What does this fold into?
Amino acid sequence: MSRQMKLASVILAATLVLGACGKDDNKEAAVSASPTSEAQPSGAASGEQSAIQQGTAKLQEETTKLQQAIEKQDADEVKRLGKSINDAWLAYENSVRQTFPLEYTEVEKYEMPIFSASAYDKVDFEALKVTAGKLQEALTKLLNAKETSGSTSELLTKAVANYKLYVEEQANNLVSQTKVFVDAVKAGDVEKAKLEYSKARVFFENIEPIAESFGDLDPRIDARLADVEDENTWTGFHRIEKALWLDKSLAGMEQYADQLVKDTEELQQKVKTIELEPKAMVAGAMELLNEAAISKITGEEEIYSHTDLVDFAANVDGSKSVYLAIIPALNEKNPDLANQLDKQFQTLEETLRGHHKEGQYVSYDQLTTEQIRTLSDQISQLSNLMSQTASIL
Amino acid sequence: MDSNKKKDGISRLDFLKMSASVGVGLAIGASGMAAIEKVVAPASKSANTTGNDSSDDRISMYGEHQAGIITPQQTYMYLASFRLMVNDRSSLIKVLRDWTRFSDLSTAGGTMRTGDNPLLPPSDTGETLDLPASKLTVTFGFGPSFFSVDGNDRFGIANKIPLYLKDIPRMPSDKIDPLLSGGDVCIQVCAEDQQVAFHALRNFIRLSMGSATLNWMQEGFISGGSGGQTPRNLFGFKDGTANNLHQTTDGYNDVVWAGDNEPDWMRGGTYMAYRKVRMFLEVWDRSSLSDQEDTFGRHKESGAAYGKKGEFDTPDPSQMPIASHVRLAKESKQLIHRRGYSYTAGVDPRTGNVDAGLLFISYQRNPEEQLLPMLKMMQSKDALNEYVSHVASGMFACPGGLREGQYIGQNILES
It folds into this structure.
């Protein structure tokens, strides 16, 4: 997508409440008007902290049960526990977010996939086992957490460092999963290649704005036919997507497959050297949502495979990872915005779960206009809230 | 003009500041009216020393009735319908407050702030920064689903629904598209400048994002209505001549303003009926003048009824063709207050014909008595049916006017 389009989208998607500008206008007032974050260290805090400890202990028990159920491959029990873990987490997550934002982020990262799995009709025990183990670790950290404090700029530096780890992890996964995809392509295994295609794309869509910062690397990996001037120079995922779903032949795809691996490896290397700034990170979260709100919601991203919902969800996840990283800073400057973002991510994630069938997202062309509109309304509102996060910079 | 405003100490920037400080109160949830109270505007009150200044451009949104109903028609209109996504009373009140505050600001020629923090999106979209108020009016109406949806009384106001608020029932030869019809809230925005009108609507949409979603939006234009003339529709005929019969205080009471038997909040209010009527311009333009005049029962140029000389001479139905539009209207013996606009909306790719017609809007105190029988008779018998098709529909109850500090719908939600 062109830069101009993107700019236009930012302008269109951006929406403000009258009130919000007033706050920013008067930063001092806004900060002092956040009693929740400032009151933490004193009086009420000890009660709050013991409530957090109790909640976390209970959550650990449930997670242990979950790990046992995963060992036994007991799908019903896994689903039941997934829901009860989520209920237990929702019951006290707000106070965790305000008191231990860093630990909160870790728990949230692993708790959500477990809850999602409980809503899906098919359980991936292997993946869940890893996630449940990480959730246990995160809960242990939370149990032993000490209250963090720091200036906003320290908090932001930390946020960027955490987010950078996430970006590197996604880039690594992108390379390894792309190799799996490419192997299937080169083996001429159309069915397997189709399956692996969207799995690889998730990792790209999670960090798309980062890729876009490296010149022509993004178009080489992710250009759509409509984006290129000359079809003969068209490479990347979507070139192979067309072969798989439209041409139904992988003939001649070898060169694109090899190039794709090289390009994702180049991305992986470049990501390691990137110097991220808080501003770029927050802007990236907006770009991700705007991407989802413009090309994914209309089915223009995956015109042959119709796996747009996979990309949509990956954009949302990628933007959520920024949100999770900046929670400490949000707590300081705009705790109400953190509450609203939290709620809106939950709303959208719930809607997305409803479109997950048989282990994957349903095809875009199976969505009704009404369902698409609901997703669109929800992502617009999320984007709207996300556009306010720059107030912490 | 801007410099004049500055002399009066009411530059646009002052508005901006005002809106911002009021915004703080709202954002942190200050309850009650104090938050809205003084957004408005010295601007609307202050005397203009320079005479022909922007005071002529401003129509106050306050008074016994909402503006935009019996206000002389401005040239441009947007009509938009929203579906509410909020499910509790306090969230609804927040949306209605924000809308009211922005109405107050924009009808007085103000805008929200545009650039305090370069990292954040500007509060206002900005396209009216150098433009006057342009007689902007904003008129709110509530559809049946505002009060309850499928028996779900989500805001606890189901018992406040006014007597005659129902969707217009199916009519003969209807081709109604439900996606372009009805809605929880309807906002009619009119102005002498299309950019000013759109700016208002666009910011209403932004202000309610996450709380209300846009169902449909129509834009219209009408010209030639100034100086008491009757404007012409796209068929070239005068449209709304009969408004002349009730344009007095008593007349409006008889025709437009809701009766004492209605809920209190409808005092000074009315019902807005909306029909989008597609007109087959190409077919019409190939019809002879006498066919055209027979269809209406009036002469095209003068607007006079058949057998009469002047536009406003009392028509004699017996002299008009039996299925003519005006004859049927007169036979219903009912008056409504018409405030329609023409529309164009591109080309039908299959036929190459222009998609154009009339956004019929009428205000009346009792649609069941004044409008529905007329509509039914016309849609079954009217000679005009050969050239038109009704494609969208809506009925909304418009509350009475506001005092400064009140928000639209307050008398429904807090009484």
About this structure: Chain B touches chain A at residues 19-28, 85, 98, 101-102, 112-113, 116-117, 119-123, 206-207, 209-210, 213 (CB under 8 Å). Chain B has one domain: 3-276+396-413. Residues 143 and 396 of chain B are 4 Å apart (CA to CA).
